User: What shape does this take?
Amino acid sequence: TFKVLKAVEHGTQVRKGEVLVEFESDKIQEAIADQETARQLAALSLEQAEIGLKLLEATTPIDLAMAERQKKIVQEDLARFLKIDLELSKKSAQYNLRFAEETLENQLEELKQLEKMYKADDLTEETEEIVLRRQRNAVESAEFFLQRAQAMREEILRVDVPRRKESLEENTQRQDLLNAKAKIMLPAVVEQQRRELAKLKLERTREDEKLKKLLADREMLTVRSPVDGLAYYGRFVRGKWSGPDSSPDGLRRGSTINKNAVVMTIVAKRPMFVRATLAESDLDKIRPGLSAAVRPTACPELKLPGTVVRVDAVPSAPDSF
Assistant: This one.
């Protein structure tokens, strides 16, 4: 329904383009405001998507190159480990153990020589004890380092080397998969972003069209006269005024009008049409193009020239056309 704000009075002489009826537009104004906000948000989303697509198109080749480079790096790491580091780690662990064994052997030999020497010299017992204690400490340290070297050798050979080899092999396999995935997914993401951008552009167009329609609807809430003439409330059908708004109060301020209702008729001065009825027996005597004379009821002596423009083939009532 539409609520009337104002309307011209019944029987008013109006000019073409003059306002006839103005309906309340609060609801459509709210809809327009909401639609303008939605349109602005759609514009921001579209702008962000365009920037995102440009950035994605620029970074995708870089990401693909990085994935390829990372794949090459892990392959080189694995190859270097198998060719150099694996054997070098074993040799290093063996060398450290042998060095610790030789160190302990040397320290023991030196302690043995000191003990033998001090039995034959004249040094005081105090000095002997200091020197021997230091050497015994050195022997003890050498024994500890030997134990640690043995443990480290076992850990390197049985744990570190196999784990590092396994880790490098897994990294190589994983990077191969990631590289293959990147070659498939990154272009797909770019294509998806392009489709999303196209969708946003379509939505933006629809939002614009919806706003345009709402603005046009708001314009139609102000009804203007299509021609010059007299404004009458209601609808003129077969010589009678009809319709819910044919009374002078039909378009008062605050009244409501249902959709598709004819609320007003503009009667133009010229041209004038006369609708007459004739019996079925006279139907063959009248045809379009014949001249006619019209006598107004108010002025029976006046004859207005006219022409028959149409004869309906369907009866409007029994024996009446």
